[in-house]
Amino acid sequence: MNSDFFYSKNNPVPSSGKSSIIKERLGLVSAYMAKQYNEYQLSNQNTNIVFSNILNLGYEVVEILKKEFENKDINPNGISFTTDSDKSVGILRILWHSISFTTRGNLKPQALYRQDDAPMFCGRIIALNGDFKSASLDAGNLEFPEILNCEMASLYIPAHKDKDAIMKIKHIGNIEYKVNQTNAAREFLLKVIEIICGGGFYHEENFSE
């Protein structure tokens, strides 16, 4: 029996049969969404753990960098780490560089495309080049995907702790780096610092012809 039978004018479906079809099809939809929801809940829990570790490491990074710059006779007053009230944003300032980390945007189940496997539902930690609260970045007033214009890298945390987190660096073509969730906070934080602080700025030029 094919599905055309149910829509044939000559074969009207009894009301009891229609109810059965509705229940079956909506049951499939609800099962699929329930799986997404459960993975979303688990990945959010894991993401919050990793992000909390990033925030804790941020203060440690500041203390180490202050000592390093003091040893090089550089005033370390421009080095700091702050968070917002709900702990969803961390801002690391290193002299003339500012780096922001945020978990904002994890408001619904979202997956990372896998070419040879099923999509991986995961949470996301985004590293932004700039101060989240400054007018130059103004990320506090941006919504996704606009905020991704400021993205330097992202860390994707899956629902299952035994699966590796995925780190993607924007300026090198989003090449993926796998890192176990235990070390994910440290590796992501250090990699972003190396990328941003290991670069520099050019003088802006705007010569008219």
Low-confidence region ranges: 1-8
Oligomer: single chain
The helix-and-strand class reads: alpha+beta
* Helix residue percentage: 25-40%
Distance between the termini: 75 Å
Order of helices and strands: HHEEEEEEEEH
Number of separate helices: 3
Q: Strand share of the residues? A: 15-25%
Give the number of DSSP strands: 8
Q: Return the domain count.
A: 1
Rg on CA atoms, Å? 24 Å
Estimate the global geometry from the Cα principal axes: elongated
What average pLDDT do the residues reach?
A: 86
**How would you sum up the major sheet?**
8 strands, antiparallel
Description:
By secondary structure, this protein is α+β, with helices and mostly antiparallel strands. The protein has one domain (32-197). 36% of the residues lie in helices and 22% in strands. The chain contains three helices and eight strands; from the N terminus they run ααββββββββα. Strands 1, 2, 3, 4, 5, 6, 7 and 8 form an eight-stranded antiparallel beta sheet that branches. It is elongated, with a radius of gyration of 24 Å. The N and C termini lie far apart (75 Å).
Concise summary:
By secondary structure, the protein is an alpha+beta fold. The chain has helices at residues 4-7, 15-71, 184-197, and strands spanning 79-83, 89-94, 97-102, 111-112, 120-129, 151-158, 165-169, 175-179.
SSE arrangement:
Layout: H1 4-7, H2 15-71, E1 79-83, E2 89-94, E3 97-102, E4 111-112, E5 120-129, E6 151-158, E7 165-169, E8 175-179, H3 184-197
Antiparallel strand pairs: 1-2, 2-3, 3-5, 4-5, 5-6, 6-7, 7-8
Helix pairs in contact: 2-3
